[in-house]
Amino acid sequence: MTTDIHWRSYALCAQTDPEVFFPEPGGSPDLAKRICAVCPVQAACHEDALAWGDVMGVWGGHTEADRRRIKRARGPICRSCGGSFTRSGNNAVYCSDICRQAGHRQTKAAYDARRGGRAA
């Protein structure tokens, strides 16, 4: 997963009318896809859109429906390291115990920060 989004400053969409990348229902995404096809940061944009989840519009040359198909084909992605894995249970979101523990530490740190450092 790309965590540094500085690529946006190099994206061709930043120089284009945003409406092109958010077509009306039934509208065509073809122009947006053509722009993305020649964009120097298309791959980073595409990977970030997949990582962010349910984002609207054309990102990295793909519509929401395209991204759903790609995510289904890839299988689950670990919430901690971003790697793909085979689920051992229906609701698994981490690829290993190490990633699960890291994810729980991160969640606890975010919770503690929201509480202003007060003990639970």
UniProtKB/TrEMBL annotation:
GO terms for biological process: cell redox homeostasis; negative regulation of DNA-templated transcription. GO terms for molecular function: 4 iron, 4 sulfur cluster binding; dinitrosyl-iron complex binding; DNA binding; metal ion binding; protein-disulfide reductase [NAD(P)H] activity. Signal peptide: none annotated. It comes from the Bacteria. Keywords: 4Fe-4S, Cytoplasm, Disulfide bond, DNA-binding, Iron, Iron-sulfur, Metal-binding, Transcription, Transcription regulation. Its cofactor is [4Fe-4S] cluster. One of its GO terms (cellular component) is cytoplasm. Residues 12-69 form the 4Fe-4S Wbl-type domain. Its main location: cytoplasm. This is Transcriptional regulator WhiB. It holds the Pfam family Whib. Belongs to the WhiB family. Binds 1 [4Fe-4S] cluster per subunit. Following nitrosylation of the [4Fe-4S] cluster binds 1 [4Fe-8(NO)] cluster per subunit. It is found in: Cytoplasm. Acts as a transcriptional regulator. Probably redox-responsive. The apo- but not holo-form probably binds DNA. It comes from Nocardioides albus. The lineage of its organism: Bacteria, Bacillati, Actinomycetota, Actinomycetes, Propionibacteriales. Upon Fe-S cluster removal intramolecular disulfide bonds are formed. [4Fe-4S] cluster binds at residues 13, 36, 39, 45.
